[in-house]
Amino acid sequence: MNNEEYTLVILHGWGHSKNQWNFFINRFDEGNVVIFDLPGFGEEKLIDQNWGIPEYSMWAKAKIESLGEKNVVLLGHSFGGRIAGYIASENPPWLKGLILYGSPSLYRPGKKVRFKILVAKFLKGLGFSKKIKDKMYPIFKRVVTFDQTENLSKIMAPALLVWGDRDTEVPLSIAKEMNGLISGSQLIIIENAGHNSHLDQPDLFYGTIKKFTDGL
What we know:
Blueprint: E1 7-11, H1 22-27, E2 32-35, H2 53-65, E3 72-77, H3 79-89, E4 95-101, H4 111-125, H5 137-144, H6 149-152, E5 159-164, H7 172-181, E6 186-190, H8 197-200, H9 202-214
């Protein structure tokens, strides 16, 4: 980043918290690194079961802007990547770089998923709907089906896509399509890593992120 000081803000994935990033944060001493729990995860209380990606993005954006930083590199993992991509599509003036990591920002359900949806709807119509007690489930349903095909094409900041070659949760086909939608974006594939490359291959992941931020 031309030796300018910057703040790397990390948005964690679904079911995770800031704790899964301790190793990375302790190692990444180039600039400031900030990570906070998203509502409903870790130490952050759930605010509203009716939330979806737009509401989470509004909350995260306000949190970031409260830092008062002018140069922010936003890194979003999985669920956090959905949020980061939505924020980036609004092109806030403080956003200097975007890293989408294992982010299912496109809704492209496979045949098995489509079949399960049809079966669930059929059973619900017969009165056999399963009761879901998980307080996060209503949010999860909105998040999973939220498609950002149009939003991604609006992103102007330099963008890096990072994917594990063994990611079975978000296939590489999604990463490649996102790469085509985000103008000028780079796609880096980390070998022998799954959906959590920062845990599977911490050295390669760190080096990939550092090279990108150094080049901004």
